[in-house]
Amino acid sequence: MRSSCRVLLLTALLNCSGLAQTTATPILTLDLTKIQGKVSPILYGLMTEEINYSYDGGLYAELIRNRSFRDNGRGQPFHWFIYETGNADASMAMDTSTGPSAALPISAAVTVRAANEKEQAGITNEGYWGMRIDPRTTYNGFIYLKASSANMGPVQVSLIHNSNGEVLAHTTIPAITSNWKQYPFALTSGASSASSENRLVFSVSRPGRIWFGLSSLFPPTYHNRKNGNRIDLMQTLADMKPAFLRFPGGDYLEGSLIDNRFQWKKTIGPFEDRPTHRSPWGYVSSDGMGLLEFLEWCEDLHMEPVLGLYAGYSKQQRVQTEKELEPFVAEALEEIEYVIGDVHTTWGAARARDGHPEPFALHYVEVGNEDYHDLSGSYQMRFPPFFQAIRKKYPQLKIIATTPVHGEAVPDVVDDHFYRTASQFFDDNTHYDQADRKGPKIFVGEWATIEGGPTPNFNAALGDAAWMTGMERNSDLVIMSCYAPLFVNINTGGTQWQPDLIGYDAMTSYGSPSYYAQVLFSNHLGDEIPGSHLESAPVRFFYSVTRNSKSGTMYLKLVNASDQPRPIQLQILGGTSISQTGKRFLLSARSPLETNSIEKPRSIVPVEGTITDISRHFAHTVPPYTIEVLEFGTGR
After folding, report:
1. What CATH code would you report for 23-42+526-633?
2. Where are the domains of the chain?
3. How far apart are the first and last CA of the chain?
4. Mean pLDDT estimate for the chain
5. pLDDT tens column, 168-193
6. Do 59 and 487 meet the contact criterion of CB atoms below 8 Å apart?
C-alpha cells in the first residue's frame, strides 16, 4: 500500500472513531438580538408507573409487604411467617371465606396450640427486603383482627431486629373480639442505630385461633402526609424541580388485560375498599398509591398533573368496536370529574369524602399509552370518541395522543417515546431542529439512554444530556419531556427494567449520573431561546442556550462526550452588558463506564465553581466526558 494511501486511510479511521481533531477552533455564536422562541415552562417533569417496585417497596412509604395477603392475586401469606418463641406452637393457613371487607375477603388464620406470656406465638412480616427503623421515631399502623373467642387476650405488636432479637419498639392491642375490627397502634423506637434488618411481629400469649387481615405500618412521611411517601425519595425528586407528573404510567395504565388495567375507582377511598390488582410487570400492586395519592404527590412537589386515561387497549387485549368503547369514555370523564369537579358533582363529592374538597388543577390529559404498539391501528377508531367527549365537556383541557391521528380529531399534543443507546442519541441530536411547527406540540413522554444497570452509567448520562440539548433548542415545540423509568429497587427480584434514574433499597437511595444531568438541566433554564450557531462543530460535542428574559441570565449547556478536551470560542451578540464572572457547574467522569451505586452514591455529582474573563469574545475549554452549565449575566 502506498504511503499516501496509508495516510488517507488512517485519517478516515480517525474521523470515523471520533479521535480526529478539527483543525479550526469551533466558534459558538449566541445572538441575543434574535429570539428563536419561548421555552416551555413545563419542559422537564416526571413519568411514573408501578415497575421495579416503584411504589410498593419504593416511593410509597408502606413498610408491610403483602399487607392484604393478595400478593399472587388469590391469597398467599408471602412475606409473612409464623413467629414462635420458646415452646410456643402455632400454624398458619389462608382463609378465603372471611376478611375485613367485601373487597378483601381473605385473611391469614393462625392456630395457636401453645403460648404464654414468656413464650408467645403469632406472625411476622419481613417488609420489602427489610424494614428501616430509625432511632427515637414513631411508626403508625393498624391491623384488622378477629378471634375465635373473646378471651383470646391482647395482641402484642413489636418491631424486632432480625439478628439479635432486640425489641426496638413495642405496644399492645387490647383484647380483640370475634368480629372484624380495625385496631390502630403506634410504635416508638428507642436509641438503637438505624437499620433495615428488622421485622414486624404480631403475637399472642394464649392458645386459640386468630385471623389477621389487612394491616399497615408507616414511618414519618414527606410533608407528614397520611398514607404518604418516603422522605428521601421525595426530596430527591424535589431537587429536580419537576414541572409535571405523568401518571399512573405507561404499561401500568393499560395492564396486560382489560381487567387488570389501572381501574381508578378501585384505588380511592379506605384501604379496605381497594382490592389490589396485578401489575403488567409481574407482581400485585397494593393500590395504596391510588388516584388521590398521585394528585397529592403533585400537590406536594408543586407539579402539574398529566392524567393518563385508559383508552380501551391493553397489551394482550383491546375493545373491538365503538360501542364497546363507550363505558371507558364515560369512565374517563368521571375520572376527570374526580380531579377537577366541584363538591356538587358526583365525583367531586367523592373526592371531598376522601379528604380533598378543593379541586386539583388539571390542564393536560393523555388518551392511552404507546398505542403505536397496537398493530391493528384501532387507535384511529378509539381516540376520536375520547377527544370529542373531553373537548365537549372540558374544552379548557389540552388532549395528548400517543401516536399521530388522522382526521378531524386533531390532538393538541402528540407523545413521542425514545429508548436508545448513547451513540443513537448523539447521532439524532438535531431530531427536532427542522420539525414542522404547524402541527401538534410534542411531549417526549418516555425517553432514556439504555446503558448501565440497574441505574445508568456516565455514558448514558452523556447521551441523555446530548438529547436534552436538542429538546431545549426546540422547546417551543417540545413542551414536555420526562425520563423513564424513574425508580428501581436494586434488590434481587426488585428490578424488571434497567437502567432507571434513581436507585434505592429499604435503607437508603441514590441518584444516577443521569439523574444529576437532569438536575443540572432543569435547575438552570431560561424562558427564551436566543439565536445560536456552532461553526466547525467538534465530534460528540453538543450545546443548548436559554436566557431569562427578566433577569438577563444566560444558561449555556455544553456536553463533551469525547475523551479529549474541546476548546471553543464564544461570541455573544446583543445584550446590554456581559458579566465578567459567572457560575460554572460540572458533571464529569474519568471514564464513560463510571457510575453511582448504593455503596458509592456520590461518585459522580455536580461540582459548582466560577468562570472568569467572560466577554463578548472569549475562549473556553470543556473537559473530556463532561456535562457543563455556564450561568452568567447579559443585562436586561
Report:
1. 2.60.40.1180
2. 23-42+526-633, 80-218
3. 62
4. 95
5. 999 999 989 999 999 999 999 999 99
6. yes
Total residue count of the chain as it appears in this document: 636
Model confidence at 636, pLDDT cuts 50, 70, 90, reads confident
Alpha helices in 163-220 (DSSP H): none
| Equal fold, 23-42+526-633 vs 80-218 | no
Please name which of 556, 541, 511 lies closest in space to residue 624, comparing C-alpha atoms. Answer: 541
- 3-class secondary structure, 572: strand
Q: What is the 3-state secondary structure (H, E, C) of 379-404?
A: HHHHHHHHHHHHHHHCCCCEEEECCC
User: pLDDT by residue (tens digit) across 477-490?
Assistant: 999 999 999 999 99
Q: 80-218, superfamily in CATH?
A: Galactose-binding domain-like (2.60.120.260)
Closest CA to 303 of 43, 524, 38, 51: 43
Q: What is the pTM of this model?
A: 0.94
Do 513 and 587 touch, CB atoms closer than 8 A? yes
The strand order across the sheet containing 304-309 reads 46-47, 244-247, 304-309, 364-367, 398-401, 413-420, 441-449, 478-483
Ranges 60-74, 204-218, 415-429: which has the least confidence: 60-74
pLDDT band per the 50, 70, 90 thresholds, residue 222: very high
Beta bridge partners of 30: 532, 572
Strand partners, 130: 127
155 Cβ contact list (under 8 Å, min separation 6): 122, 143, 145, 172, 173, 176, 183, 202, 203, 204, 210
The pLDDT score that the predictor gives to residue 74 is 65
